[in-house]
Design brief:
about 70 residues; alpha+beta
């Protein structure tokens, strides 16, 4: 697996969780803090069969500007 856009975290996912993922009958949950959270990483884990919950900062790479509250835009 080589998702260099999400950094080392995405590259090592299969090493940690195993090559086959959680299986077709179950989804697993990954909880991360804002230091490790990113939209591309959340999408990568979802494609592997894992849900993720995290706090994403509004200046995070991959976060759509339509999701940022108007008062925070300035």
């Amino acid at each position: 697996m080589s998702d260099t856009g999400s950094g080392l975290a995405a590259v090592n996912l299969r090493e940690v969780f195993g090559p086959s993922g959680p299986g077709t009958d179950a989804m697993q949950l990954i909880v991360t803090d804002s230091c490790y959270a990113s939209v591309p990483l959340a999408m990568q884990t979802l494609s592997m069969g894992y849900y993720s919950i995290s706090t994403v900062r509004n200046n995070q790479l991959g976060l759509s500007v339509s999701l940022v509250d108007a008062k925070e835009k300035g």
